Structure formats: structure tokens, C-alpha cells
Amino acid sequence: MEHAVHVAGPPVHHGPCPEHAAGAWPAGVAYPPVEPDRFTRLVLRLHARAPRWAVPLAALGCVGLGMAYALLSDPTHSDPDARPTCLLKLTTGLDCPGCGGTRALWYVLHADLPAAARHHFLFVFSLPFLAWLFVSWAGNRAFGWRLPELRISPKVIGGFLALWLAFSVARNLPWAPFTSLYV
Questions:
Q1: Angle at 13 between CA 12 and CA 19, to 5 degrees
Q2: 98 burial via Cβ count (<10 Å: 0-12, 13-18, 19+)
Q3: What is the pLDDT of residue 109?
Q4: What pTM was computed for the model?
């Protein structure tokens, strides 16, 4: 007969359990931990040995590569259908939610904020917030700094995403004043 002792956590079973066949797990018992494969063990070892500043540096490197791409490609002087192009614009002719972002980044990197805002206002508006979120996260992660964190509620994030959706729809409307949003 099986007796279960309930403590804080899953039940503990004492004695043999005749109703469960060999290899079957009794009800209410968690699955056994899965042994990680060789690649997962390698990644976990590298993560454990990596210095604290490695992940923020890698993220900064990715941002730097995006900025270098914007600077080298000069999207302001390329043809509208030059490769690589947006798949949504290529297939439908509509501006996607991020359309104009690369040009806006190019103008931001050249300190021309009005032109950047002309190409993607919401991208330019969100840059200071994204920069502060990165600096506070990276400073905490790499150096243990306790910078004031920007607390953004889910309602604010939802409102921003709704505004971005409305902006994306409005910039594709074919009549004035929405045609001024076309990039």
C-alpha cells in the first residue's frame, strides 16, 4: 500500500507502488530532470566562466553593427527598392511599422533630428528611453551600478504599441494629411 506524506512541495512516496508499471511516473510527481546535451553543457560552462561585462558588451556590439550598417549603406541616397528591402513593402506596397527606421537612425547619427523625426517619429521619440534602459541594465550587469530604473507599466507599453499601430495605419492612408507621413 502506498502512503503519501504531504509537505511543502510535491508528495513524497514511501514503499512500493504496485499500480504503477516500471518506468511510469506516478501522478503528482514532477518529471525527472533532463540531462543537457553536450552543446548545452558547453554554453552553460561558457556562461558561468564569462565575465560580468560580456553580455552588455555583446549587446553593445550588436547595436554598433546596426549603426555601422546604417552609416555605410547611406539609406538616404539609395533607390527605394534597393536590396535589402522590406518584404511587406515589396509584396504589398505598404509601409511597414518600422519603415523609415534605418533612415531615421542615419539622420540621428548625423545629428539631424528633424529629418530623423520626419522619417520615423516614434523611433526617434523612443531612442532616449531605450538608451537609458540599456545604460541602466548594462551598468548594473557589468559594474554593479544601481542607477535609477525606468519603470514602465504594462499600460504605458500597451499604449505605445497601440500608438505605433495607429501610426503604421495612418502613414499608409492615401489622402491628406496622412500622405505627409509617407516615407
A1: 145
A2: middle
A3: 92
A4: 0.65
